Prior knowledge:
The protein is α/β, with parallel strands linked by helices. The chain contains 7 helices and 6 strands; from the N terminus they run H-E-H-E-E-H-H-E-H-E-H-E-H. A hairpin with a 2-residue loop joins strand 2 and strand 3.
Amino acid sequence: MxxxxxxxxxxxxxxxxxxxxxxxxxxxxxxxxxxTTLANRICQDWLGEDMGKVSNIAHETREIQIKEQIxxxxxGKELSFNLVDTPGIATKIDYEDFMKVGMKEKxxxxxxxEATKGVIDSIKWLDEMDVVIVVLDATKDPYSQVNITIIxxxxxxxxxxxxxxxxxxxxxxxxxxxxxxxxQYELIGISAKYxxxxxxxxxALFVLAG
Length: 210
């Protein structure tokens, strides 16, 4: 009986320690680039649920959001990770900008305060990341101070990076300009909202983190 118990315990311990490590995959980028939209796309594809709320107003995501144990399976391959959706990084957050889109002063000030804390938390969490997806709005100028700051922080930490140019469904999207801004990284153009090129994104993710 004792031998059977020991055998069972050993089997349990082996299963525990042989489990595949879940890497931390972070979504980083400026506000309203589509990080949470991409997070929702990933979670819907592999978990059947959303990760967070999206909005046209900047800084909708103001706290770190995590979905654990997501497993991507493709062509016999499997990639397991914990997905970390981070607040948009900005160099300036002004409550008056929120008032311009219809928010009351009290709510606008609260949002600005929370968004500022979110930026600080995003930077702190960089040290926890194994792989980072930088999500950029392909319709906007990629040579912004925010984008350069994000890429600089990642390069300093030697974290594997995949750059995603989001919103390619829009006419103003300019993938060539995004590629020219960050030629050292692989670039995938997608529409997280409509699912365009998402399969190519997953394939690139397998190559980077698999």
